[in-house]
Amino acid sequence: MLLCLPLAAQNSGYLTVGQVQKVAGKRGAAVETKIALAVRPGYHVNSNTPSDEYLIPLKLTWKTTGALEAGAVSYPKPTLEKYEFAEKPLSVYTGSFELTANFKVAANAPAGPGAAVGQLRYQACSDRACYPPKTIEVTVPYTVQ
Amino acid sequence: MSFPRLIAAAITALALGYLSTGCSTTTSVRAASVKPDGERKTAPDFTLKDPDGKVVHLSDYKGKVVVLDFWATWCGPCKIEIPWFTEMERKNKDKGFEVLGVAMDDEGWEAVKPFAQQLGINYRLVMGNDQTAQMYGGVDALPTTFLIDRAGKIAAVHVGLASKKDFEDGIDALLGNNAAPGIVRDDTGGRAAVPAAGGSK
After folding, report:
1. What CATH number is associated with residue A104?
2. Please, is B11 exposed, middle or buried when counting C-beta atoms within 10 Å of its C-beta (0-12, 13-18, 19+)?
3. Which of A72, A103, B27, B99 could pair with B85 in a Cys bridge, judged by C-beta atoms 3.0 to 4.6 Å apart?
4. Cα–Cα distance measured from residue B125 to residue B50, given in angstroms and rounded to the nearest whole number
């Protein structure tokens, strides 16, 4: 069972975390949440699979998941964009996109609310300059039913 | 937009276009390669370490023309400029010129050394830090490159990917290599006659 309650946006400059769906499920249930992200117009962030070994990928990791067990994070298909500063097209995200985070409610989870807290690391560039990697906190509220 | 407003907008656009391009053949140069001497500020001195752990001060380079390049391995535009700097270092080293690369990678030399080797960087590198970046105005966007004259003053700043020609013209102006002194290139790609070492950037 999945509830969809939008939460306040978190802005860290070039990438904004928008709506994060609140999840709810029974013990042992597989649950997922969508995390809406938006890149500032005129900028891009590297995808989770950048085209160059030196580029820093977009990556969501969990600091704490409470009564949830973290599963895979699904990243959308990146776009290949050609920029003046790169010989080959780069694997990037621009505009709005969503990550999907999968969890399993622990078998012994106590009923009630909680929150999983993750860190989203990204590195943004324009077509002429790049900006230091940043980390945004992502909070996923949940309710064990 | 109404017709009269459209006409007014067109006239304004034409007038602005004349001021920004038509005048550039006289003394109005946009973003020339170097600032006039009187407008230059002293480049803040710093103490950083090179890959061998040797201490490097910017003041060690006084008397030389220096390209001070803030960069990082994860910066694509930096990767375009690095071969230019390698070439400029080779071409001008015996004329009192040095490139100094300030790496801003959080991962330190572990990330920077193999990258430098892969790109064949032939100039000195030091590991930067936030304190040094703050001394130079924050340096959030990379590359950010300062062109420093023999007196240790900042003659030009390029934020983001610049053109190779802008660097070459700036270096030539500071080294006194210009075949025709006072001729500097503007960002529009044209050439403009200005007073020696003149510019508006």
Report:
1. 2.60.40.1250
2. exposed
3. B99
4. 6
Q: Which of B111, B115, B142 sits opposite A130 (nearest CB)?
A: B142
Residues of B contacting chain A (CB within 8 angstroms): 72-80, 104, 106, 111, 115, 140-143, 159-161
Say if the Cβ atoms of A123 and B161 lie within 8 Å.
no
Tally the domains of chain A.
Answer: 1
What are phi and psi for residue B95, nearest 5 degrees?
A: -110, 10
Task: State the residue range of the domain holding A15.
Answer: 10-144
Q: What is the pLDDT of residue A80?
A: 96
Distance from the Cα of A131 to chain B's closest Cα (Å) equals 5
Note the pTM of the prediction, 2 decimals. Answer: 0.80
- Phi and psi (nearest 5°) for B70? -85, 125
Strands (E), chain A: 10-11, 15-20, 23-25, 30-39, 44-46, 59-64, 68-74, 79-81, 90-93, 96-105, 112-122, 124-125, 134-144
Q: A123 contacts in B (CB within 8 Å)?
A: 74
Residue type, B40: R
Q: What is the DSSP letter of B108?
A: T
ipTM of the predicted structure? 0.86
In a domain, A3, yes or no: no
pLDDT at A28 over 70: yes
Residue B28, C-beta contacts closer than 8 angstroms, at least 6 positions apart: B19, B192, B200
Token code pair at residue A125? 């560039």
pLDDT at position B197 is 30
